[in-house]
Amino acid sequence: MTVKVDHDESMRELTTDGGVLRYHDIGDGPPLLLLHGSGPGVSGWQNYRGVVGELAKHFRCLILEFPGYGISDTGEGHPMQMAVESVGRFLDGMGLGAVDVIGNSMGGIVGATVAVDEPHRIRRLVTIGGVGKALTSHSPSEGIKLLMQFTEDPTRERLIAWLHSMVYDPATVTEALIEERWKLAVEPETLEAARRMYTPKAFAAAAAAAKAAGIVPLWARFGDIQAPTLITWGRDDRVSPVDMALLPMRDIPKAELHVLPNCGHWTMIEARDEWLSAVLAFLTRG
């Protein structure tokens, strides 16, 4: 039987030296940390509420809400860096050692970064799109361009255009989803945080800072990920096109790739049952 999922009953908070982190705690068993993606009005709850009931039959599911997205404390840094730092703070604050991790899009990048820099924290890693490098497709992608347009000039029409780029089936973008996303996306502190990451100026500044500091890009360090890794991808992803999966699939030593047809960026939503089947088979194996 699917574990009962309730937003308010499962919400918890943890005070850290980087501010208050909020999270959902559902189920029993080995800890499974779920990391959400980025974009207007996103939250961990939105990303995983449709699958956490099934995952919680096997695991204690901890859905972390990253700083800067309107639920945990906002913080003043770059959202990506704050997200990476929040993982260590959260696991230490919860008294947890190595955990299994599922990361959607940016959350997958965060999980992979932690797996490279702090391998003792990651037991197994599941990613949903995002983690890779464009080899044959144009960069930035259609979805990222639409995301930047919304962040620079947030209108309801631009939000809807971006949401449609996230999916294969337009019916997935309901009025309820639009309203939910819009409400959080235009909250002033959340929008200000997004502009530190998703504007052309922010993109250029981040690239220049990384070059000046001599930072090796994540894609060049995939070979350092020792955790068994399941890469899941929508074949019809217009945010992170599927050719991006080739490099991590080849370079991560213990990587497997599962591509889901007729599916966009949100594999856990558009291909829910097939995605759950693949993920649970991976996480419960042996």
Structural write-up:
With 286 residues, this protein is of the alpha/beta class. The protein has a domain at 7-136 and 216-283: Alpha/Beta hydrolase fold, catalytic domain (Rossmann fold). The chain is 40% helix and 17% strand. It has 13 helices and eight strands. The protein has an eight-stranded mixed β-sheet with strand order 1-2-4-3-5-6-7-8, with helices on both faces. The longest helix has 15 residues, at 79-93. The radius of gyration is 17 Å and the shape is globular. It comes from Tomitella fengzijianii.
Broad structural category: alpha/beta
CATH homologous superfamily placement of the domain at 7-136 and 216-283: Alpha/Beta hydrolase fold, catalytic domain
Please mark out the parts with pLDDT under 50 across 5 or more consecutive residues, or reply none: none
Rg from alpha-carbon coordinates: 17 Å
| Number of alpha- plus pi-helical segments | 13
CATH structural architecture of the domain at 7-136 and 216-283? 3-Layer(aba) Sandwich
The proportion of residues forming helix, as a percent range, comes to 40-55%
Give the N-to-C terminal Cα separation. Answer: 22 Å
Q: How are strands sequenced across the largest beta sheet? A: 1-2-4-3-5-6-7-8
> CATH topology of the domain at 7-136 and 216-283, what is it called?
Rossmann fold
Binned strand content: 15-25%
- What is the strand tally? 8
Helix-strand pattern, N to C? HEEEHHEHEHEHHHHHEHEHH
The averaged pLDDT comes out at 96
Shape: globular
Largest sheet report: 8 strands, mixed
CATH class of the domain at 7-136 and 216-283: Alpha Beta
